[in-house]
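Notes to self after the Tuesday call (sharing in case useful).
The group wants a holo model before anyone commits to mutagenesis around the pocket. I volunteered. Ligand is NDP. Logging inputs and output together so the record is complete.
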Amino acid sequence: MSQFDVDLFVIGAGSGGVRAARVAAQYGARVKVAEEFRVGGTCVIRGCVPKKLLVYASRFADEFEDAAGFGWEVPSPKFDWKTLIARKDAEIARLEGIYTTNLERAGAELIAARAVVEGPHTVVLPATGERVTARNILIATGGRPADQPHFVGREHAISSNEVFHLESLPERITIIGGGYIALEFAGVFAGLGSKVSVVHRGPHLLRGFDEEVRTSLEAAYRERGIEILLERTIERAEKIQDGLRITLSDGSAHEADVLLSAAGRVPYTQGLGLAASGVALNDKGAVIVDEFSRTNVPSIFAVGDVTDRVNLTPMAIREGQAFADTVFGERTTRVDHKLIPTAVFSTPEIGVVGLTESEARAQYAQLKVYKATFRPLKATLSGRQEKILMKLLVDGVTDKIVGAHMVGDHAGEQVQLLGVALSMGATKADFDRTLAVHPTAAEEWVTMRTPVP
Ligand code: NDP
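Result:
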């Protein structure tokens, strides 16, 4: 008989926790998983998946508009927010069911309750007072929207948690932030017909992205009628008869029906008993882990956003898998946190992998930059003026591609495959050798011949 009730106790049934629990159970571990909210975590319940469904909904607006250039006569389309939200909710419920079934099929026991760490091998369920001992504990509680920024009337702002359940489509929405969430929702609401304003404290949107990607999206959003207010913050929000009056740091006042704060996310470690159990946290409250996701308490591990390494679902899944392989599968596995393809599902979409131009210039003395900006074939008849941007960064010494960036339709799909090429160490010559698929936008990746001077 083991001295512990279970081999693994996972706190949090999101992407990282579920993967770790399933794989550990498949290796024969006795596993319990506690989840205080809904199985699936941020990504499935109130993140990537519902967001992408809303993104799809919003993009029909362009299609209806473009159709006229191809001979279609489209009667003025009507959109119903309630229908979309109900259908989205049904799909999320279906996915939650699948996640739950998969956990149970793997042999893990799901506990629908909050769990708190009490010591290196003990977890307590505050609702019942029940204690469970575990050989290993995995913290996979993810993140939550940051409380900041501070301004008078911030209680009137909603976060990305609530935005999925608005009663109706706001006529006017003001969004705080210039990151992933702010820009994805700006695109969603603009597509669905809201008047959108983005208020960002920085000089450009999307800090950390390639400079041209940032300015290109900014220009595209402005062209699409989204108001981009840079180097400004919110000073005050007050309820007025017809919505909210929002005063900015430049003294200007704006009205909106909804104020969405998308000013970052923070690790969800509050009240988890970690500090009391001796688990070291960093100054942002993230669990500090080593390359095997192990904390300073040898029996306690953490994966996903709660560790604030790379806050992306596929990374949490990798980390969960590597943890289970290492601890229960006798296969020591490290997770590589480099070369991460990623997409921002703004409209137009952004896809990136590798270094930005300024990062690449700092690392490579002989950097070659290849660039294509063009209107896609479809635009010839639709009349749409928006341009696609594609950029390849090549180390002139080794010919290796060190970065690829795109703003335009399906950039996320394209960058997934570029990620494969870059992971394999592709050179510009490899791209040049590859035959184009014609006519596509993607063929530009293999037909760019002259570096920008
Ligand atoms: P981000 O970190 O991407 O963006 C936060 C934004 O809020 C930044 O523009 C930041 O400005 C601004 N900000 C932060 N604090 C303040 C403040 N006090 N006052 C005013 N502005 C502030 O966070 P998100 O919330 O958009 O998303 C969280 C994470 O979730 C992302 O970083 C990403 O890892 C993940 N995610 C991934 C998605 C995807 O893969 N498609 C989609 C959604 C989320 P500044 O730049 O000046 O710091």
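Two things stood out.
The pocket of NDP is lined by residues 148-149, 176-182, 184, 200-202, 207, 233, 262-265, 311-312, 342-345 (CB under 6 Å).
The CA atoms of residues 169 and 199 lie 20 Å apart.
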